[in-house]
User: Fold these one by one.
Assistant:
Number 1:
Amino acid sequence: MKTRWTPDLPIPLPDYPRPQMIRQDWLNLNGNWEYAIHPIDAPQPETYQGTILVPYPVESALSGVQHALLPQEQLWYHRSFTVPADWHDKRVYLHFGAVDFECTVWVNGEPVGSHRGGYLPFTLEITNTLQPLDNEIVVAVSDPTDTGLQERGKQVLKPRGIWYTAISGIWQTVWLEAVNATYIESIQVTPDVDAQQVLVAVHLPTKADGQGLSLEITVRSGDTVAAQVTASPLEAINIQIPQPVLWHPDRPHLYHLDITLMDGPTEVDRIQSYFAMRQFGLAPDTQGHLRFTINDEPLFLFGPLDQGYFPDGLYTPPSEQAMLFDIAYTKAIGCNMIRKHVKVEPARWYYHCDRLGLVVWQDMPNGGLADTPLQATLSMMLGWGRSDRKGLKRFGRSDPDHRAFYRQQLQEMIDHLRHFACIAVWVPFNESWGQFHARQTAEWVQAYDPTRLVDHASGWFDQGGGDWASRHVYVRKLPAPPRHENRAFTLSEFGGYSQQIDGHLWKVDEKFGYRFYPDSESLTTAYVDLLEQQLLPLIPRGLAAAIYTQTTDVEIEVNGYLTYDRKVEKMDRDALTTVHRRLLSPTD
C-alpha cells in the first residue's frame, strides 16, 4: 500500500530538522546508504548487501529493503561524506533524529559514541576524527522490539489487532552541523503571560566560562520588533513583551527569536528560534467542574488519537507534505487538539502544530508487557478504572533497571519537547503498558514542568494522580463524569467507529475495530449521533476534553477518519466540521 507522496530525492526530508534552534552551517545526510544485516555477534562487515534509503526504517517499503529485523540480528549502515571546506576550523557534530533501538557509531574507523532509546535525538562530536576530504560513517543497530521491556509504543514482531509492524534502525533525519569553539549549545524559552514577559535561558558548553561573552537578542512579531536586549549568557534573561499577542488554536501567533552570541565585538554564533505567549491550566466553572483553560479562558478540547504510522514509511512520513497533511486535515475538520499516541514525532511535526494551532497531548512511548487485543477490548467494555493490583502486577515493570531507564527516557522526552508551545499535557502511561508508580511519576512530572498538565494513566489502572480523571470507552455508552472528583474529566479515547474501504486496506482478510458500518453515509450518521446524543450532553456535566479514535486507519485497524493511505475521507467533511464546531462552542 502506498500514499500519494514520494520521498524527495536524492535527499528525503530535506528541511532543517530542528526548527526550535536553526543554524546556517549544516549538511543533510539523508539519502542512500549501504547496509548489511548479520547475526548480532558478527564483526563489522567488509562488504555490504545493498542500499537503504535513510531515514526510512529497514522494515518499510520506502527503505528499499523491507526486512523485519529480528532481535538476534544487527543492522549495519555505511556512507561516505565530504566536509565543506569552510568547516575545517570548526567543531563538527553528528546529529541523529532517532535510531531504534541501540546503536554504536564509528567515523573513519574510530568509535565516536553509542546510544540507547528509540525515540529521542542524540548528538556526537566528530571533530577530531574528520579527514580533509573523504570521510565515512558506520552505524550498527540492534532492536529487541517486544522481546524486551524497553519503550517501543505499539511495535511488535508479529503484528495483530492494535499492535503494528515494528520499526528498526535510523528513522529520523541524520545531519551534520558546524559551530565555532564557543557556541550556543541549547536554549530554553518559557513564556509568562501574567507578567507579560518571556524567560530565555541560553546554555553554553561546560568548557565555556562566559568571560567576555554577551548575547544580543531580538524578538519580532511579524515584521515588528517587539523587544531587543543585550545580556550575559551566564544569567536567565527576562524579556518584557508588552501587550503580548497570545497563542490560541484559533489564533496561533508565534514570535520570532534571534539570538547572537558575541565574544567582544566578534560574532561567534547565531541561531533563529521562535516561541508563543500562552499558558495552560485548570479552573472550576460556575458549577464547580474543572475546565481546561488557555490564557485563563475555558476551552473544550476535541480531536483525534494520532499514531503517526504510514503504510509505506511506517514511523517515517514519506515527505514533509505527508506529515503536514494529517495535521492540516485535523484542523480542517474543526478539531483543536491531537493526542500523539505512544510515539515521539520529528521536531518539525510539533512546529507545524505550533504554527497551525493545535493543542497536543503527548504520550510517553511505553514498554513493559503488552496486553492482547482481547484484553484491551474487554478493559474498555468493562470500564476498568481504579487501581487493579493484579493488572499492575501483570503488566507493570518490577525490574529496577527498566524503571530507571523509563524515568531517564521520560525526562529526556520532556527536555526535548518542552520548547513547543502546542504541548499542553504529558501522558506518562497509556493504560497498563509498563505502568508502575503512576501517581509518583505524575507528581514528578508536575514538579519538573509546572507549565503543563499531566494525564498520569490514560484509560485505566487509575492511581488517582495527575490532573485528569481519564477514561477509555468503546462499545459501551459514554459515561457521565465521576462525582466528587478533584481532577478534570476526559474521555481520552472513545469511538473507534469503523469502515472497510475496498482498495485501501492493509490486509483484505483481516480487520479490527469496535463498531462497523457498511458505507460513508451510515458511518457519518452514527458518528454525528454519537457526538450529538452522547458526548455533547456530557460537556455541561463536567466533560473537559474528548479524544476520538482515530486520525487514520493503521494496518488492520480500520477506524480512522481517513484510510491508511490517506486517499479517502470516510465521512462527510462538512458534517464533521459542523458537529465539531458545536462541541467547541464556549461552555460555562
Number 2:
Amino acid sequence: MYKKLFGRGRMSKCKKLAITLALAAGCGGYLPFQTNVAFAGQAAYGDEEFPPTYLDFNQFVITADRIPVNKWTTPANVITITDKDIEANHYQSIQEVLNHVNGIIVPAGIDVPIVNGLEKVLILIDGHQLYNDGVGYRDTVEMSAIPSMKNIKRIEIVKGGGSALYGSDAVTGIINIITKKGERNETTFDFNTGSWHQHNYEATNQGIAGNFSWFITGGIHKSKPFDYPGNITRSHNSYSRESDKSDNAFTVRLDYEIDERNSLTLSGHHIAHKYNRAYEYTNPRYPTDRYKSMLYNNVSLVYNFKENSQTPGWLRYFNDYKARNGYDQARYTAGRGDSRISGFRVQGADYQNSWILGQHKIVTGLEWHQTGTKHWSWDYDNIKAINRAFYLQDTISLGKKWKFVPGARYDDNSDYGHQWSPKLAFNYRADDQTKFYASWGRVYRAASPYQLYVNQTNRQGNRDLRPEKGHTEILGIEHDFGAKTGMNVNLFYVDLDDAIDTNEDDRYINVKNQKSRGVELTFKQKIDDDWSYDVGYVYAKVDIDGFNSSGSFTQPRNNYRTGIHYNHGIWQANLLGNIGHGGLSAKSFDATRYAALDLNVNCKVHDNATVYLKLNNLTNQNYSYYGKNGSNIYTSPGRSFIAGVDLKF
C-alpha cells in the first residue's frame, strides 16, 4: 500500500507514521475512538455549539480549517461574501466582487487577484483547487476560470498563509467559491445591457425530486472594446486585455442524498472565453477580429460522508482541462503563422477525514494529482508531473478560551522531491465578541512547467529555477462592539527567498528575497434598519531585494475601501469606493493616486422581478496597477453603466 501511494524506495519512519495516521483516519470513521465524533444534535468539543448555529454562516466558516468551525474559534482572518451580497450589488463577475474586498485588487486586463501585495493566491471551487500551470504566466488562476455568479452560494476569503493544509499556492490567501445546490423548484432569467455594447444573458434552473436535486446555469456575455479615462489611448495601453469579448458558460451540479449522513455530488462547468487585446487595434498586421481564447472543461465526482456534523469527510475524483489559443508576434513576422495553442490537464483524487478525540479536533487527508502540459513554444512532448501529499492538523482546545493549532503537510513531487510545510497557530477568545489570533507557516513553492520551459517573445523559461522558500505570519484582533458594529485589525508579513520573477529580458529568474508586510483595518456598522456602512484600510509594502521586476503588479501602499448601503422597502442602493495612493511612481504611472466610485440601485417592482442600474467608475478615474518604462500597461476602464432586469418563476 505504501509503495502504491508514495512510490518505491526507502521510506523514513516519520513518513510511515504520517501515512499510517492518515489511513487510520480514513477508515470511514469506524475505528473504536470514533464514538467521540459529534453529529447533529450533539454539543461537543469545548464551547462550540453545534447545531443550532451551524447553519448560521455568519458564525461558521469552512475554508480556514477545511471543516465547519465557528469563526470566533479559528485563528484566521476570514471574509465572507454571500449570495445575498452578490444579488444586492448585481456583480457581473468575480473580479468585480473581489475589487470591493479590503486588501484585494484584480487588475483590469489580466484578471488575477492580488492579496496584500502579492498574487500568490490559491483559488478553490467547493474546496477543489484550480490550477494554472503551463498555460498562463501568472502566479495564480485567472478569474475567467470562474463560470457564473449565479451559482455561487458563498465566497470565503482567508487572508494569510495556508500551505500546511492546501499546499504551495496558498501563500498570501485562499479564495474558496462555494456553489449552490438545488433547494427549490425555480427558474431565473437575468438580462442586462450597457456601455460598450455590453449584452449579458443568464438563466438558472434548480429543483428537487425526492433525494435528487440539481442546479444548472447558462450564460452568454458579449461586449465591444471599453473606453479609457481621459486621454488614454489603446496605443498607450497596447498590452491591455480589452472588454471586447464573447463568453459562453454552462455549469451543472447534481446532488443525490443517500441518507442524512452520506451523499454524492457530480459537478462540472464549461467556459469558452474569447477576448481581444488593445494591441490588435494599434498594429496593422493584426485584423481586429483575431480573438484569443481560453477553454475550460472541468468535472468532479464527490462522495460526502459524515455530513451535518462537525467532522465531515469526502472522497473526490476530478479531471480539469484548460486550453489557450492566441498569437505570437515573432512567429507571425517570420511567416511561420501565429497560432499558439497550449493545453493543460490535471486529474487526481483527494481524500479527507476528520474526527474529535477528547479536546482534539483532527483533520487529515491524502492527495494524488497528475498534471500534463503542452505549450506551443517548447519542443517537448507533453510534460507530466505527479504530486502526492499528506496533511494533518490538530486543533487543541485548551479550556473555553484558547485554541492551539499545530499542523503539517508533506508533498512528494516527481520533479522537486519531498518537502514538509509546518504550521503553528493560536486563537484566544477573550469573550463572546472578541478574539485574538496569530499564525506562522512555512512556504515551499516549486516552479511551474511554464516558468521552466516557456520560449516565446515576451517570456523565457529557466530550467535552473529553484523553489521559493520562506514563511508567513499574521497577528490580529477581531471584536464586535455589539450586534451592529464590528472591527478587525491584523498585521501580516511574508518573507520569501529565491522568489520567482522576471528580469528586464523577460526571463524567469530567482530573486534573492521578496517581502510583503503591512496592516489591515476593517470597520463595519449598521446604523439602523435602513442604513449601514463599512470602511477598510490596508497598508502594504512589497520589496523585491532592490530588483526592478518586469512582471509584477504594484499595489498602492495605501488602499481604502468604503461602502454605504441603503435598504428600505422596494429600494436598495450601494455606493462603493476604491481609493489608493503611494508607491505608484510618476515615471511609470499616469496617475499616482485615484478615488473611484461605483453605484448600484435596485428596485423590486414585483415579488419575482427586480430592475437594477449600475454606474461604475463614476469619477472616471485613470488608474493602473502595472507600469514600466514610463507607461501604464493595464489601465482600468472609464465610466460605464449597466441596466438590467432579474426575473424568477
Number 3:
Amino acid sequence: MTPPQPEQWPGSSEARPTLEQCLLRVEPARLRVIAEHWGVAPLPGSKPEVVAALSERMLAPGAVERAWQALTPDEQAALESLRASAGRMAWPTFTRRWGQVRLMGPGRMARERPWESPLSPTEGLWYRGLVFRLPLQAPTGLYEAALVPAELEARFPISGFVPPFYLQPAGSPAAVCPASDNFLDDACTLLSYLQNHAVAPGADGRWPAPDTARLTRRLRDRDPGRLALLHHLAHRLGWLRTDPAGHLRPDPQPVAAWLQSATAEQRRTLAQAWRDDPSWNDLWHVPTLRPDDTGSWHNDALLARQAILRYLASCQPGEWYAVAAFVAAVKEADPDFQRPDGDYSNWYIRDAATGEYHHGFASWDAVEGALIRYLITGPLFWLGLSSLGGEQETNHYGMSLFCLSGGGADLMRHAEAAAAEPEPAPLVVRPDLTILIPAPLRYERFQVSRVADWVRVYEDYVYRLTASSLARAQEQKISTERIVAFLQEVAGKDVPRTVSAALARWAQRGTQVRLEQGVLLRVKNEEVMRQVAAHPATRRFIREVIGPRAALVTPGGWPRLARALVELGWVPDLSGVEETLDDDVDPG
C-alpha cells in the first residue's frame, strides 16, 4: 500500500472524510475488490463513476446491516473499538490490536486474492471497504489513521459500547500520606524569600546556589522536582518580575490577590495553572526517565496531562484505588493518550538508571506508565489533589494507592465548590519578640516576613523581630508604629506591652545591644595569637580579636581556618564546633 498524501478535508478540523472521499483515495485494484464484494458490476467507466455507484450501493437501506451480520466477531469488535474512538484511531494502534494488512501490488493481489482468506480482522475489513487508512491532523502533527466513515458507522447495529476503562476501588491502606496544603505554604515561603532577598538568576534562569539552599531549608518538602514546579507556576501565574538591578521580586498586585484569597481558591489557582499549562512538560520531570532534546521530536504535555485527568475524573472522591490498576486501565483503554500517531519509535528517552533508550510499544510501561505514576504521586499529590497510601510509610513516589481529595474532586468537576475551610487561629506575638503564624494565614505571614526574620517552621511558622529586620522594614518605609498596629490587628489586640515598648525604644535610639552566634578561637598564649592573627594563611579567617587569647572567626570560615592551622603545624581541638555545623557553613 502506498501511504496516502495529506489532504484538507472540508468542514471543521474534527470532521471525518465522507465515504465517497475515502473511496476516491483507494487504489484501483482494491477498489475493484470492494466493488465486487458489494455487488457493483459491471463497473462504470471512470473512477468517479465507480465511486459514486459503490457509495450509493453501500449506503442503500439495509446494506450495511447485512454486511455487519457477515462479519466475524473479531471484525465486529474492531469496528466497535473504532466507534468508541470517534471513528478514528492511529493506524499503528489499530493494527497492533487487530492485525496487519499485507502489502501487495495489483499482480500479487490478483494471484493471491487475500480477501478470500484474510489473515486479520483489519485485512477482512480493508477489502470490504469498511476501514480506510488516511492522514489526519492531531495536536502533535500529521498521522495516519484507521478510519470508518461516519455514514457507515451510523448504520452499524452497535449500542452502548463504552471504552474498556474500568477501575475497581481498593481497600484502605495501612499507611497514608494525606493531601495537604503544604504546596501553598511553600509558595508563600518562596514569595516571602524573594521579597527580602536580592536573587539574581543566571542566564539560564537558575538561582545562585546559596539562595536555592537557603530557600530549600525553609520548605516543608525539599523535593527538587517539586521546587521546580513551584518556580515554574510562580512565573506562569505572573507573580514574579525583574527589577532594574536584575533581581526577582514578587509582583504586588497578583501576589496580594492570591495571598488574600481563601485557601480553597489558592489551591484551585495553582492546580488549574498546572492543569492548563502547555509549557510545563511533565514527561521531562519523571524521575526514572531522561529524555534527550534532539530537536527531532516533541511531545504534547498538555494533551497527555488532560487525557490522564479525564480518566482520573472517573474515580470517586474518598475511594482508594491502586496506582498500578489505574495505569493498566489506561493502557487497555487508551494506550496512545500521549502519542496520537501510535508511533513508539521516534522519541529519544533514556532510562535514568541504565542510560538505555526506551523504544517500541514494549517500553510503554517504562515511559507512559511511569508518566502516569509520576502525575499521580507527584504533581497531583503536591498540589493537594490526592492522598497517597501503601502498606508502610515510604517516599511518596513509592506509594501504591491514591484517593482524590476534596480539592481533587473540585478540579475534576465532582463538586462545584470545596467544603468551607475552618477559621484559622490568630497569630501569636510572644514577649521574646517571636511571632507564631498558623499556616493558613499566608497573607499575614508574607507581611510579617517583611519586618521579621525567619526562624523555623513546625506546624506553625516562627518569625522573630530583630534589629536587622526592623532596619529592613525602615528601608521599606514601614514604621514601628505601623508594625505594632498590624500585629494588634492580626493578633486580636493581644500584643505584649513589652514588645510595643521595645519597638518604640528601638525607633528612638536604634540598636543598643547585640547578640551574635559565631565560632570562638581560643589559643594557649598571646604569642600564638599574634602568629595566627599575622600569618596570611590564617588572618583572613579572623573576624575580630576580642582578647589576648581569643578571637571571633569569620562566619562559615572555621573549616578552612582549621585546615590552615594544621598546615602551620597546630592540631586544633574541634570538639565544640563540629556538631554545630549547619547547611550554611562552607566546608571549603
Number 4:
Amino acid sequence: MQFLPQLLRVSIWVITACIGVFLVLVSPQWLNQLNWFMQDQIVRQTASDQPVDSVVLIDIDEESIQLLSAWPWPRSLLAELIEQLAQKQVKVIALDMIFPDKTQFIEDEALQKALTKNRAILPIIWDYRGSPSNLAVGGLPIHINQQTELGYCHKASGYVTSYTEMNESASLLGHISPVPDHQGIMRFMPPVVCWQGQPYPMLALSMLDRYVEQLDIIKITNHSLMLNINGRILDVSLESGLWRIPYRYEMSSFTSIPAWQILAGQLEMDLSGKAVIIGSSAVGLNDRVATPSLPIAPGMLLHAQMFVDLLSDHSHNYPSAHWLYGVLVLLITMMMAVIIVRFSIRIAVIWWLLLIMLEVWLAVFIYQINGELVALATGIVLLLLLFVSQSIMEWSLVKRQSYRIYQLFKDYLPDTVLSQLIKSTDEGLLIPQQKEVTVLFADLVDFTRMTETMPTAEAAALTRQVLSLLTEAIHQTHGTLDKYMGDAVMAFWNAPLTQENHRALAIESALLMREAMQTLNEQRGKDGKTPLAIHVGINTGEALVGDLGTEWRHAYTALGDSINVAQRLMMLAHTIGTDIVIGQATATCCSEKLLSYGQHKLSGRTQLEEVFVIPVTNKV
C-alpha cells in the first residue's frame, strides 16, 4: 500500500520537471511577460542613485525651445551648441536627432562643418518589421570595423537617417533603435544591425569607440558580444542576439543640462573629458519612450545607460549565473517537495512563502553581483505548480488514508481517539509491528447457561446491554476494542496510538466495568432478577499489532503470547473466586495499590506467575 503514494509523488516530480524544461526551452509569451514584470521590479528597487560622471545629457527641453527658437532649430544654432561643447573640451559628442532633409545651404554647411571638426556622431533609426518596408530615408555610409566576426547580426527591413552629406560629415554613425516588447517597453537593443550585408553598431558602441583609446568588436554571436576595450576583454550576455538594456541608474544619477544654458554661456560645470549626448525631453519632439524603470523617459537616457554600463566593470557575461540560479531553484523545489510530504499544509504554506522569498532574494543578489536578470517568474511558477499539484495529491492520499482508518477503527475506538488517529501524519500506524500492549479480556460468568432458559429476544437484549457497559468502560479509558466473542470482549491499550500509562488505563477500565456491573445488579435486584458477574484478566507484553486482515476484510488486531496470557488470567479469576486478575507485568505500574495473590500456574504454561487482584474497596 505504501508503493502507490511514492509512485504518485515521483510522477508529480517528474511531470513538474518536464514542465519546467518545456517552459525554459519554449519560453511562452505569458511567461516572458511575467518574467519581465518581476525583473522590472528588481531593476526599479536596485537602481543606483549615485552620480554618473562619464556622460552628460544636453537637453533641448521645453524651456530651451521657448527661450531660443521654435523647433526645428536653425542648424547653425545646433552647430553653435556643438562648438560651445567642444570648447569645454568634451571628449565625445553624440546627437540623438536626425536630419533627413536639406534646408538652406548655409545652415546645413554650418552643422556639417561642426560635425566634421568635432568628430560628432549621428544616429540611425531602423525598421524591424520583418518584411521589406521600402523605408529608406537618408544615406548610409559604412562606419564599421571590418575585422568584426559576425556570428550574428540583427536584420533590419528599412531605415531613417540623415541625408548622405550630413552623415558623411559625422565621425561615426550609431543606431538608436531598441526592440520594444509587446507592451511597447524598450527592453532590448541589438548591438549591431546589418543592412545590405553591412554592419552598423548602436550609438553607445560608437560613443565608446571615440571615448576610449582602443575598442575592437571581436565577435558577435547569438549569445554574446565580445569587446576589447583598452586591452580589457568584455563579454556581454545577449538574448537571441539582443542586449538587455541595463537600467542600472536612476534618471537623477545623470546630469541633464538645458541646451539654453550652454548657448547662453551660463554653465559653470566642468565638462572636460566627458561624453555628451544631445537630445530632447520636449513633448513636441516625440523622443520619449517607456522603460522598465520609468513610464516616460527621454530616448537619450537609454544610450547613456548603455554607454556607462559598457564603460564600467558591471557589464560582464556570466552565463554560469543562469545555470547557478537554475540549480538553486531545483534544490529549492526539491526541498519544497520534501516539506509537503513531511509537514502539515499550514507549515508547508509558510515554507512555500519563505522559499519564494528566497528565490527573489537570490535573483536580486545575482543581479547586484553581476548584472544578470534571471528568470525569476519561471522559478516561482515551478514552485507554485509543485506546491499546488503535490498538495492536492497529498490531500487526496490523506483523505484516502483517513477514510481507511475511519472504516477500520470506527467500531474499535472512541470518537476522541479516532479523531486523533485520523489527524495523525504517521503512515506506519496500520503497518503490523511488534509493540508492547496491555490486553484485557472480560466475560460474563455462566452467561451461556443463564440465557438457555431465557426467551431469545430477552437474551439478545441482555447481551447487548452487558457488552455496551463493558465497551463504554473501554472507550472511557481510550482503549482499542478488538472483538466480541459471544459474551466476552477483548481490548488493548498503547496501539494504534502510543499511551505511556497504558497499564493504568487498562486497570481503570476494569474498575469501571466492576462499577457498571454493580449498578446493573442493583437494578436487577430491584426487578427480582439474578445478579450478573464478570471475570477480567489483564496482561502486558509484546504483541504483533496492526492491520492483519485480508483484501476482502480488514481487521486491526493484536496477536501473541501476551494475548493468551491475558485470556488465561481471566480464566484464573473464575478459579480463585475474584472478578479482576492482573498479571505481574501490568502490576508494575501501581503494585502498591494492588493485592498480590501469590504464584499461580496458568493453563498451558510451565512457569509460575505472580498475579494480583483489586480489592473491592480499592480505587486505582
